[in-house]
Structure formats: C-alpha cells, structure tokens
Amino acid sequence: MFRFITAGESHGPSLSVILEGLPAGLKINEDNIKVDLQRRQKGFGRGGRMKIEKDHAVIKSGVRHGISMGSPISLWIENKDFENWTEAMSPYPVNESVDKKEFTKIVPGHADFAGALKYKQHDLRNVLERASARETTARVAAGALCKSMLKELGIIIRSRVISIGDSVPSNTLDSKEIESINWETIEKSEVRTDSKDLEKKFIDSILKAKKDRTTVGGIFQVIAFNMPVGLGSFSQWDRKLDGKIAQAMMSINAVKGVEIGSGFLNTRKPGRNVHDVIIPDKSDIRNFNHVSNHAGGLEGGVSNGEPIIVNVAIKPIATMTNPLPSVDINSGEIVEAQYNRSDICQVPPACVIGEAMLALSLSEVVIEKFGGDHIDEMLANFSNYQKSHKEFGI
Ligand SMILES: Cc1cc2nc3c(=O)[nH]c(=O)nc-3n(C[C@H](O)[C@H](O)[C@H](O)COP(=O)(O)O)c2cc1C
C-alpha cells in the first residue's frame, strides 16, 4: 500500500512529509529532490517570498547510505522565512504583548471565511497558514522520490504551460507534435513554454495584470511518457486512474478544472473524430498502437499505453494589491480584503506541483500492479507482465 501525508504551516518552523510504500533498493539523494524544489520556486510573476526561501529537503528516515530500505521515508523542509515569524507562529504560548500578525479581513477566493466558521477561528491566520500553497513544497519533495521509482520503469513526467490569461490554450494531442515538444527550452523559459510567441504573450499578460493591480490564471499540461498498459482499474469507482489523477490535480491550491486528453474539446466533435483507433503494431511492446490520443492515455479508468495527458486550469490568485471589497470576520464591518505579499501568476510553478501529483498518483497504481518490496522484484514483475502482452494479436 502506498500513501503519503504532509504537515506544516506556511510561516511555521517547517514542513514535513512521510511516504510509505516505496520499495527498498531505490537510490535516493537530496540533490534530486532539490532540483524539483528549485523548479517550483521559479517562474515569471512570482512574489518576493521565493527570493527568501531556498528550499532544501532533509531526509530524516527510511534511507540508509543513499538507498531506500522499504520503511517509511520522512522528509523535513525548513521554512527559512520562519526567522521573521518566530513569535507570531510559535508553537508555544507567547506573551500577550507580542505581535501575532493576526488578521480578520476575509480574502474572497481563499479558505478564510469557510475555514473560520468551520474551525471556530477568529484569527484568519489560523486558516490561511495551512490552506496556503506553501504546503505543496512537501508534495513536490515527495513527488521527486516517486519520479525516481517511476524512472526505473521508464516512465518520465513533463509539464508545460499552455495558456496564461486570455490566450487560447495550445493543447496538442497529435502524437508527433507531442514528441517534438522541446522540453529543454521549456525548462529555460520563465513561463514554461517552448514557443517564443507564447512566451511573449504570457509575459505580457502577467505584466498587464501587475500594472492593473490584479492577477492572472491559466492552464498547464502534465504528460507521463512511456506508460505501461493496465494501470488503474474499472472494477471499482475508486480504483479508476483518471479519477485518482483528477482528485490529485484538483487538490492543488487554486486548481478549478481538470481535463484528461481533449475531454472538453471532444464534446464539440462527432464520435468518429474523437475515439482513438487501434492498429496492430508488432514493433510496439504492446503489439498494438493507437493512431491518435484524444483519450489522453486513459480508457475505462485504465492506462492504455499512450502518454497520459492532463490539462489543469488554475484560477487567478485571490490576493491583489488593489483588494476586493470584503468584510471583517469578527465585526461584520465592510472593509478591503487583506493584502499580503503575493504572486501575480502561479501557473508556471504549479506545473511542477502537477508533475509531483501525477508522480504520486502513478506510484500508487504502479505499486498496486507490480508490487514488490524491493525495486528488483518490482522490475521483474513488470518485465513478466510486459512479456505476457505477446500472447495477444498473434
Ligand atoms: C504555486 C502556488 C502559489 C500560490 N501563491 C498564492 C499567493 O501568493 N497568494 C494567494 O493569494 N494565493 C496563492 N495561491 C492560491 C491559494 O493558495 C488558493 O487560491 C487558496 O488557498 C484557496 O484555495 P482554492 O483556490 O483551491 O479554493 C497559490 C497557489 C499555487 C498553486
């Protein structure tokens, strides 16, 4: 069984994550995790905090001499900004005179209002601190470990931005076009695109939002390449891989829509132009191939061997330098929403969080299907399973 859980507040002392179920024998080092943590901190349109934090995950358990032991792995990430919050966010009682950095002006679009009533909190900081996207740092660290395991099976996860602001999403499902995406250029781009035209459009949208003292959202795309057939199951609703991925993506802060393949566009086309025709193909390990991938690699909640393609819609950030009208949670007075230092556009870094969530979702079903307490056992099961495909289509 694979599971993970995170803990930690945005301005508290640290974040932690525990992962259980990764096999023994995986090479694990802090540098691999660091690469993804740093990728999460980049992006045009990010706020000042990213300059303060240089995230680093420390391995606290489950790994010995750089190799996983099959026991729970725990990671610990210090919040460098905590030095400015030692009293305000102290886990221990503090003097009444201390500035607790309380706030009471609800930010529309945040968890403030519902969270305050739900947890009976008169200081909205007690809601924001955990509802904040800072928590996704711990998920990215966990996702980096999962990527190492998936890589052993050949599965690679990539991401890119396909729209920011009012630009038309550059979603492509043509297999050849997907293969020609230049991932190196994307890694170098501050807005994670390999198109110079789109890069300019995205940056212009962010600059305009900044000038207008507002924020912009967008859509990012996460793709898993070299997918084996048969991960997930149609046999029960909660075993469907498309459902697991949708939940994982939707759980990312500010995500409001998830599409597998060309799910939304398909609704405007006749069925003949939507479904992916299968052809025999002896050169393929599966003995078959699809001529297109509108289904985004998932049919019946099961991976069909094509790349898994997930498009994820992110709303514009709720905190704005020109705040919306709001109310004070305690007095009921009409006020301006709270403003704290904030991002203008979080779509590029959200890509990296999306990669982590896809890696975590795929790890669950990979471990379920191929099992094994050591990576060698998992790889042997994987290889036997692939050999069994040769029975078909002969
Ligand atoms: C990478 C990332 C960074 C974010 N940064 C901010 C931010 O600086 N300011 C803000 O108001 N919201 C930010 N958000 C969004 C809020 O966390 C989110 O809108 C809020 O917690 C309410 O949850 P919901 O939008 O999922 O309903 C960020 C989200 C992500 C994914």
What is the approximate shape? globular
CATH superfamily: Chorismate synthase AroC
The stretches of 5 or more residues where confidence is low (pLDDT under 50) are none
Using the coordinates shown, work out and report the CATH topology: Chorismate synthase, AroC fold
Could you give the order of strands across the largest sheet? Answer: 1-2-6-3
Structural class: alpha+beta
Q: CATH class, please?
A: Alpha Beta
Largest sheet: 4 strands, antiparallel
Q: How many separate domains?
A: 1
What number is the mean pLDDT? 94
Beta-strand proportion: 15-25%
Order of helices and strands: EEHHEEEEHHHEHHHEHEHEEEEEEEHH
Spatial extent as radius of gyration:
22 Å
Residue share in helix: 25-40%
> What are the bound molecules?
flavin mononucleotide
The number of helices is 12
Strand runs, count:
16
**What's the architecture, going by CATH?**
4-Layer Sandwich
Distance between the termini: 35 Å
Q: Can you walk me through this structure?
A:
Helix 3 crosses helix 4 (125-131) and helix 5 crosses helix 11. The protein has one domain: Chorismate synthase, AroC fold (4-Layer Sandwich), CATH 3.60.150. The mean pLDDT is 94. The two termini are 35 Å apart. By secondary structure, it is an alpha+beta fold. It has twelve helices and 16 strands. It is 32% helix and 19% strand. Bound molecules: flavin mononucleotide. Flavin mononucleotide (FMN) binds at residues 47, 109-111, 131-133, 136, 252-254, 315, 317-319, 342-343, 346, 349-350, 353.
